[in-house]
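User: Structure please.
Assistant: Input sequence and predicted structure:
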Amino acid sequence: MNVRRRDFLTAAGAFTALWGTRARAASTAPRLIFVFLRGGADALSLAAPGGSAFSAFQALRPNIAMANPLAFAGLNFHPAMQPLLAAGPAANLGLVLHAGGTADNRSHFDQQYRIESGDPSGATTTGVLGRAVTALGRRCACVTRAVPQSVRGVADPLLMSDPARVPPMYAAGSPRPGWTRAQRLSSYVGSPEAAVSAAARSAELDGNLLAGELAGVTSASLTAQHGYVTSNTQFAQRLALAAELCDTSLDPAIVTVDGEQFWDSHASQFTNDPTKYKAVYKSIDDLAVNLAALRVDLQARGLWSHTVVAVMSEFGRTVRENQNQGTDHGRGGLMMLLGGPVRPFTDAGYLGARTWSLPASPTASSALSVVHDYRLVLAELLERHLGLPRAAVSSVFQGQVPLTSGYLGTLY
């Protein structure tokens, strides 16, 4: 028997009454929030070379090099990055320059697949974070529209875009208690609510605990309550929901969040004009102000000291601006790490690259090189933060990453 979409939405109105008030968890288990900026974020618009190298950089981008940069740790940051450079946030801000995948693949979807699978060849079907979660024996959550490749292979991953949209029809004792799980999931096929099916399935399997804790909670209420800024994209709501999920009985080891900003800036990049449509300035501002809000949120919840937030994109962009005042697909990029366990970029104990190395004579297609394999950064987080034994970490990366070469010292 089929149930109409309207019936599901009507039933959702009774959600709060069914599950009562929410109870918070108090887990101190380590966790990772993995933020993927899809579209190829321009690392050199986030943080450009400092000192005399900045003049050379400006010459390569006469129309789109950042104006009024903020000098910090030998680099020049975009002025919209200021929320992350303030005294508090900077204390736990790590940067990995020249980070990226070892395969020189400049297709968005192909490179995203290779990055998220952890396999430069693109031959692996499971996700690198999915394999890590399985090895940890813990749970993961995805705050996005669809289960990302990074967690493929995990049984029943929690997928959620807004807790208010999880219908109680999936719960035990629902109006259709005799339905099988497959029947309940199939009723959403082809509808806009398809993305919540995994969330509802997970809530059912967890004995409805999560459904009860999120009763009456919406993404909009979370952003308003915890000081996120929603002027540009849905990114604020996703980060707010990620923090909330970390504070429930789900106790996820890993939460993935897809950025909603516009990064694929082939033309009219507008690095310095926040008023323009699809301006990179707006994307940077949205990223920085809401990552800073996430820090405050996690601190208030008592979770900051054992949480690491890792931010990366599939690749960076070309060094020289193109004829359309934009930048094209590149290679090396910037990883940002935040959280209580993170060693700041300013700390002498960090062993990674300290400055950008620009090509000597860049052409229209010249890109930043990849000096630091992003997988080595993730491996350090898995072993030294999440507590996976070295052998298990090696297995997560299918023996492809030489862990004996040492880590970059991104953590205290």
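Residues 142 and 193 are 15 Å apart (CA to CA).
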